[in-house]
Amino acid sequence: MRIYFSKYQGAGNDFVMLDNRDSQFREWSSSQNIAALCNRRTGIGADGLILLENDLALDFRMIYYNADGSESTMCGNGGRCIIAFARHLGLIVNETEFEAIDGVHYGKIENVNQVHLSMQDVPAIEKSGADYILDTGSPHFVRWSEDSIEKVDVVGTGKSIRYNERFKEKGINVNLIQESENALWVRTYERGVEDETLSCGTGVTAAALVFAKEKGLKGEHTIDIITKGGNLKVSFTSDYEGFKNIWLIGPAQLVFKGEIDSDFFVQS
Length: 268
What we know:
By secondary structure, the chain is α+β, with helices and mostly antiparallel strands. The chain is 17% helix and 44% strand. The protein starts with a strand and ends in a 7-residue tail after the last strand.
């Protein structure tokens, strides 16, 4: 049996996408097999794997797995990529409503460089010393970088925080940020990948909200984000009760399509 896949990337965050509406991949969906598919030397190579499945009420359901094979929380760039994938499959035209692990999301497509994904409201941000902790669909730790953002040791810093006593059991994503002219630089260490990724959708969302909190921004705003993988935007409405109407905006592009024989997988 052969399984057909598509490879998508959003600002350098790349994903193996599977149309699993017939549930055929469930037979092979062990963490070992998912990690093998995401392996960059012996598999397809990706930051994660995403299944598009049927939903009784909405356009589809998104199931996201980390590169290590573990099922994970929400992935922002993956959410934008699955919107583009759904249109490629003919499930939607330019707007959608779908289910993910953290609830219902809305999406709309202007073009491949402007795929919009609604994010969940963020009612509160915890401050820990000079750092911040918040949940934007996935848990994030945000720290202002004192060194040049281009030279900072993201992996070393990320591991030291992700594996400390408070976070080591469930893990946390770690973002180092720095204000640039008219934009915010963000670099992210992702749990489940256990490395720096070229961008992280929920991470840049967390960074933008922390920036807004630090600057005391109220009302409607859009923050331009720079990552190693490309540029993104985060728009939101801020008030004294937190953040709402949050949108992650940026590219979502098909890289290639292919097929893999089921002999590749270890039988569950």
